[in-house]
Predict the 3D structure of the following.
Amino acid sequence: MSQIQVKKQSKDHSPTLKTIMMVEKVLERDKDLLTIAQIKRKLPKKIMHKTLLQVLDYLQNSGKILIGTKGVLWVYTPTEELERLLKQGLTV
């Protein structure tokens, strides 16, 4: 590998667990449909656009968010909350 290729690879940013949790917290707190620009503004720290896209891709693959043409929506429901809702629900 040449030095140019090594330097190019080292510029790729992978999200840390702290970054993923920070984005999750923003999306979970504000359960409305958010654009990527709105998510960036609500984050307590700035992150690179590519890193944010990687985090959003991970969250979509794990079933926590839906990404549509108009924005990002938090859809994950914790197990205990889901069980509580099922107990209160109507049996048909």
In short: The longest strand covers residues 65-67.
